[in-house]
Amino acid sequence: MKKILVAEDEEILRMLVVDTLEDEGYEIDEACDGQEALDYIINHDYDLIIIDYMMPLYTGLEVIEKVRSLPEKSDQKIMMLSAKSQQSDQQKVLEAGANYFMTKPFSPMELVNRIEEILGGN
Fold it and tell me: I need a surface site. Which of 32, 51, 88, 94 has the fewest CB within 10 A?
C-alpha cells in the first residue's frame, strides 16, 4: 500500500483529499501546518507528500526547502497544491524542489489521476 502525507491547513479540503485517497486504497497521514508536516516527514517514509503552499508555522515552500536539505529525504516526491496559479509562483515552487504542482481548485478525480501518474498506479 502506498503511503501519502497530506499537509493542508484548510480542514474541509484536507478531509476531502484524505477521504478521496483512502477510498482509492492509499494509506494517509495528515498534517494541518508546516511544523507538523515536517515532523511527519522526518519521522516517516512516504511515497508522496502533498503539501499546500500557504500554511501556518512554515509555508509549503519552507517545508520543501528543509526536506531537500536532508540527505536521506532529498529524493522525496513532493506535490505542491496552491491557489497561486501564476507562472512565476509555479516556477518558484519547482525551484524550491517540488516535483509537481497542482492548482486549486481541482477535482478529486483529477488529483487521483495525477497521483496515479506519479506513483505508477496504486
Answer: 88
